[in-house]
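Quick entry, no commentary yet.
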Amino acid sequence: MGLIFAKLWSFFCNQEHKVIIVGLDNAGKTTILYQFLMNEVVHTSPTIGSNVEEIVVKNTHFLMWDIGGQESLRSSWNTYYSNTELLVQPFSFPQFIILVVDSIDRERLTLTREELYRMLAHEDLRKAAVLIFANKQDMKGCMTAAEISKSLTLSSIKDHPWHIQSCCALTGEGLCQGLEWMTSRIGVS
């Protein structure tokens, strides 16, 4: 009964859900953000700090924070975690982490895994759902989503809902499926 009421409440209320988009530098985070916003490729340069945009999907508002992924910036990612779990009306809805993985960058996949597990251990992200975009699937020799899932040991994540989605930020392929997974998580406890 509570779940039905929560879904009805979300239908009538414009709720905003905070999303952090993280990943190593050059993974495609900013390109994905602007594909969501404008459905087109925007010329980007390395993000210093963050970009923030509101994306609306099926009456659901996502405030997306694209955080720079350079080595010197990763230690400050945790400053963006505060208040990730927003209380909206009387309900608390899950918030989201989007991890963008460069499917060509095999050498740094171990580093990506370390950063992922460091985030998941953070108290402010204890209820966050995780969407992993296996980006650059259009490139020859890229790792599949299954290979990335295995390398990141995603099957060992038991306390966070997660989903891995193959995508290409340049064409937008796979991005809508990821957003659909996120919207399906709204109101799920």
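second:
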Amino acid sequence: MRELTLQQARRIAVRAAGLGSPRPTTLREAIGAVGPIRLDLTTYLCPSPELVLWSRLGRRFDPAELDSLRTHRLLVEIAGNLQRAERYALHRAQMEAWPGEPATPFAAQQARWVEANRAAAEEILQTLRSEGPLPPKELEVSFPVPHRSSGWNNDKSVVMMLERLADRGQVAVSHREGRQRVWDLAERVFPEVTAVPFAEAERLRNEGRLRVQGIARASGPDCDPGVGTVGEEVMIQGVRGRWRVDPAPLEEPSFRGRTALLSPFDPFVLDRHRLKELFDSDYALEMYVPAAKRRFGYYALPILHGDALIGTADLEADHAHGVLEVHSLRPSTDWAPSVTRAVHAEVRSLGRMLELELADELM
């Protein structure tokens, strides 16, 4: 079995994510390096998908181009992630088999709830067919059995039914108006594709996941969500257990790094176990942490420099006053002057993308 150094593993991960140098040159290339992008729309800085793609493209990124891909259905929303439309073929078999066999306890409970409200589901589909796309608030439907949960989704029967109909491939998010999802029949949102058989689709999704991660755990409680048996099994010096690696990056030329500010929802940092094991980072998103207990900041951005995570940038966009607030730049280790200059250059570049001036000059 091949054994990699920790530095090799880090560099494989950085290259695979499109965060090395040179940068991707087109939006499609950047999307290919990222894979599915979580659609968190927190506007503390800008919608996360924009930040994720700017981290790859820098000054080349134009948010209007991303909007155009969505408008023309080249990018679609599946399970809360922005994905290339053709990937629908890898999800269709799973949707058609919902709640699955065997079903998880949650899916089985939700399937029973949908069946108890079959008439309501049909009414939603009929309304969307004749009047869609529509936001949930315009779907006035009576539910014999209202949705019940531990509290978070109580009294949200329409939204929960739309999500279950999406799980089984009958409806889909057409677009968003601000933070609000607007729904339509899936056949009017997704392209006409043949479903890839379930086992093959799972393998292809795992291959795609490994391709953009470069190196990942196969499975287990300390990975999210794992890549199964695709790729090559390797060990990493000083890191417990076995990993799976995409063989392609092993043969790539010498590593060239750069500096990047990353969204808290960037696929590169979402697997916190992987982040800790490979990059010795205990970064956490602290939006829901009381202010007095925060270590990094409300929406702090991890900072990548070369093959290391070197700190965080706590930034805030104040569009009302046209400024980008720099609350703090927190090094995890001392920065050399050249590193400081590179971080400052990325902060200024982000300000230009957001069309904001820095509130104070960086020192």
